[in-house]
Amino acid sequence: MKLWIGMDDTDSPNGMCTTYLAVLAMEELQKAGVEVIGFPRLIRLNPTIPYKTRGNGAVSFLVDTPELEIVMEIVDSTIQEFSELDHEDTNPGVVFVRNDDDILNTLSRFALRAVRDLVSMDEALFMIGRFMIPHLTYKKGRGLIGALASVGFEGEDFTYELLAYRKPERFGEEREINEESFFRADELYYPKTWDTVDWHNKAVVSVPNGPDPVLYGIRGSDFYSINKASEILKTEEVDRRMMFITNQSTDMHLIPEKEARELRNFHSYILSGLVVENPTVIRGGHVFFNITTKFGMLKCAAFEPTKQFRDVITKLVKGDHIRVFGSLKKDTLNLEKLEIISLVREKEYNPRCPVCGKRMESAGKNQPFRCRTCKTIAKEKVVEKIEREIEEGFYEVPPVARRHLSKPLVRMNVPKKHIFR
Ligand code: ATP
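^ thats the input. predicted complex w/ adenosine-5'-triphosphate below
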């Protein structure tokens, strides 16, 4: 019998990681003779969700087994032993779903909603009841939502991530890595791998900081290049590694304008509009501006961590036609990407006095312009070209500020890409 096992909400800010727990469960299942088929999947869900520990990731994998009970027992004991059950916000959930087209089709819609929307526990329990899905819950069992979604992920667009884990005795210690080796790996394998380092901001972005078991994660479009890149890395000893299929770098979270009926916080959108006024920079280096959208005026922000992306934003002017990509929080769209559709390149001015060279004044509606001093007259405004320091095309935040789900421009088949690397 082929079964999808999905799990979520096993970790806490104090440690663990659902991907690691899934790897441990897969090892235990294999020891018991259960066949694990293919790569596990790491699915990132709605990035704005308040309950998340870090990246709102859930994991699923496919097994072939004659006995459901054994599989459930093994997964249960792995969760009991390794998940952060003592932490008040850790509420694990696991599902065991038959590899059946009807169930998986329904769950794929559930998965899309869990990535783009808010899903209630009742909806998750409804799915469980409707398809009689065997499951395990601990405490509030909120992890059932992510567990079902990770099984339902269809994978129309997907990428890979190789996760390397630390020796358990090193958990919580500072990570020992040779930074240069990460830059070298990027030099050799970009663009088949991406977001390993950020050259401009001089940072390794593939190594987390927290107490979790992950040593590094290499993302990319083919697992051959990812493996090759990881062979170059010089780090403390790697304990285990696992290749995951993911929805990272796919923009799966963004709701296209034509599918949106209204704008709601905790949702992410692609929206087009005109810049209403020149952007303003506030203390701390955050940049704000408004655009008109078909839903009304929308405040957009490029926060300080988006670094050199802000230099593009501050050069926008009133009237520029743009498309914004990002998440709506506190009624403000946090920008992940920007398309400049067209820039304002001309501005109308009052004409200059041909004698003294000063700007003439308007004498009122339908009246000519006059220079009070020289008494000269002119009929029409003059149109002057404005020099722009930015151009049409796509811009993105740099790797240091990249969201898991955001599709880097290097993956996008669009003209005029301005890639920050
Ligand atoms: P990590 O990425 O390190 O595994 P995390 O950031 O995924 O941690 P979790 O501990 O898994 O955080 O907590 C996220 C919780 O939110 C889970 O219980 C999951 O089921 C739930 N959840 C995820 N997406 C949604 C959604 N769209 N609507 C409602 N609940 C959600």
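The chain has four domains: 2-152, 159-246, 254-345+388-418, 346-385.
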